[in-house]
């Protein structure tokens, strides 16, 4: 935004950095600021004047909260996004369905539409939905994503772009596969930024292979989330300014002008974790994956907390330990086997020749 925020789309068409900016902006809590309706629109400057960061519940403030607020200000001040309007903001969490879903639609001054799907927030429900991707044919959030773009573009003929960071990238791709045919034909690009992949039956499907040329996938050097499950293509690896899990956060991704700075290959630290998790997923049946997921999040919900930030506090540990001891025998058996597989695959990755 500092480097290219004054360059209009007429001089430099929409690119991969624009897609990330709008996908990251989707993390901003906009209840009461951006209309839920697709027929009512508001500009970035108008939305920013209505937004008050102090009104956001502390429980909803993710790790990038301050950076997202700064991004909001820069979008409101930029020439590039001056003619962009926002509409169709939704944000729902349904604990009974293990669903955390949020999306927003942008009407760009180049005549196109862009839908951004929010990635996993800090809620336990949001993280569980990520794990559900490994064994469910369709999650509640994926179904909502399909319904969302069908409603957003039911009228008109504008070109459509979709995008999202983390789980939002998965939602963007999935909804492009199963939305109405008339809408699918108008989709020009789908951007996934370190988003998890899909089960084999989806990747091998005719519709996925047909949409593959329109999918633009990007992952950081030590990607973990973006390497979960398969994608059927080689994503572009982006150079980052930090190490470890922090690389998942887009503010550490490096760029030059209107493109990401490419990295040669994944770092070994990410490869280790990927092999460990991949080993678990490949060796477990769908039933075992479901038991593992339900057991893990049954433990995490034991302290009666809603966010992972709260769970990681020391005061939550006694409740977590007690919950583990109360698991059913079959749950304990699967959990033990899961951690055994993670340890085995992780150790093997460390000693694999480079």
TrEMBL record:
<dbReference type="Pfam" id="PF11187">
    <property type="entry name" value="Mbeg1-like"/>
</dbReference>
<protein>
    <recommendedName>
        <fullName>DUF2974 domain-containing protein</fullName>
    </recommendedName>
</protein>
<dbReference type="InterPro" id="IPR024499">
    <property type="entry name" value="Mbeg1-like"/>
</dbReference>
<dbReference type="InterPro" id="IPR029058">
    <property type="entry name" value="AB_hydrolase_fold"/>
</dbReference>
């Amino acid at each position: 935004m500092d480097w290219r925020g004054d360059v209009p789309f007429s001089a430099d068409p929409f690119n991969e950095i624009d897609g990330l900016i709008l996908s990251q902006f989707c993390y901003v809590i906009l209840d009461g600021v951006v209309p839920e309706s697709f027929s009512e629109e508001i500009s970035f400057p108008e939305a920013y004047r209505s937004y008050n960061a102090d009104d956001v519940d502390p429980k909803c403030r993710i790790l990038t909260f301050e950076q997202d607020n700064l991004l909001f200000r820069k979008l409101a001040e930029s020439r590039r996004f001056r003619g962009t309007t926002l509409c169709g903001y939704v944000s729902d969490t349904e604990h009974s369905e293990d669903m955390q879903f949020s999306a927003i639609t942008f009407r760009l001054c180049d005549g196109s539409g862009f839908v951004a799907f929010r990635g996993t927030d800090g809620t336990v429900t949001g993280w569980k939905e990520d794990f559900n991707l490994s064994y469910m044919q369709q999650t509640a959030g994926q179904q909502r994503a399909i319904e969302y773009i069908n409603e957003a573009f039911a009228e008109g003929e504008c070109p459509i772009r979709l995008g999202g960071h983390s789980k939002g990238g998965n939602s963007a791709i999935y909804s492009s596969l199963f939305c109405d045919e008339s809408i699918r034909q108008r989709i020009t690009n789908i951007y996934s930024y370190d988003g998890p992949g899909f089960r084999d039956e989806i990747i091998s499907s005719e519709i996925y292979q047909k949409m593959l040329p329109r999918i633009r996938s990007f992952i950081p050097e030590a990607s973990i989330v973006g390497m979960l499950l398969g994608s059927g293509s080689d994503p572009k690896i982006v150079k980052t300014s930090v190490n470890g899990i922090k690389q998942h956060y887009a503010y550490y991704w490096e760029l030059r002008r209107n493109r990401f700075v490419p990295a040669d290959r994944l770092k070994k630290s990410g490869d280790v974790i990927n092999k460990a998790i991949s080993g678990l997923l490949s060796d477990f049946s769908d039933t075992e994956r479901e038991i593992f997921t339900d057991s893990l999040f049954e433990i995490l919900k034991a302290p009666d907390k809603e966010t992972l930030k709260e769970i990681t506090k020391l005061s939550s540990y006694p409740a977590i330990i007690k919950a583990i001891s109360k698991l059913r025998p079959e749950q304990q058996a699967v959990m033990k086997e899961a951690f055994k597989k993670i340890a085995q695959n992780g150790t093997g990755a460390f000693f694999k020749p480079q």
